[in-house]
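In the design runs reported in the main text, the only information available to the sequence generator was the tokenized backbone. The following block is the verbatim input for one such run; it is reproduced so that readers can re-run the procedure and compare outputs position by position.
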């Protein structure tokens, strides 16, 4: 026996229901709303704070690398990043609320329709 006999000849699993596939994927509208909210909040930050935060957190650059690029101390980048994130905290809370609300709406509609 070479091991091939152990493999079934026909598929025993049934394909996933379309509704299950849709539930498993992220809603692109939710992602778009999140992005718009974050971009609006980023726009409210002072330019340097916004640049440091974006490069350090969004692009994944180290604080030292960002500091070197702008000719400032590493502490300037870390403190600016911390202040920027604190200012954006309400937006993160709002996005979290919208995510929970959207999930509740999905559950209710699934319950009503399913």
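Verbatim output:
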């Amino acid at each position: 026996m070479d091991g091939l006999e152990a493999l079934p000849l026909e598929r025993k699993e049934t394909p996933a229901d379309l509704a299950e596939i849709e539930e498993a994927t992220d809603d692109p509208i939710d992602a778009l709303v999140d992005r718009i909210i974050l971009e609006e909040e980023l726009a409210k930050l002072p330019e340097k704070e916004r640049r440091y935060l974006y490069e350090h957190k969004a692009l994944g650059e180290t604080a030292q690398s960002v500091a070197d690029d702008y000719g400032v101390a590493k502490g300037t980048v870390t403190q600016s990043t911390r202040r920027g994130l604190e200012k954006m905290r309400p937006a993160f809370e709002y996005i979290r609320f919208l995510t929970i609300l959207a999930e509740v709406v999905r559950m209710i509609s699934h319950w009503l329709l399913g």
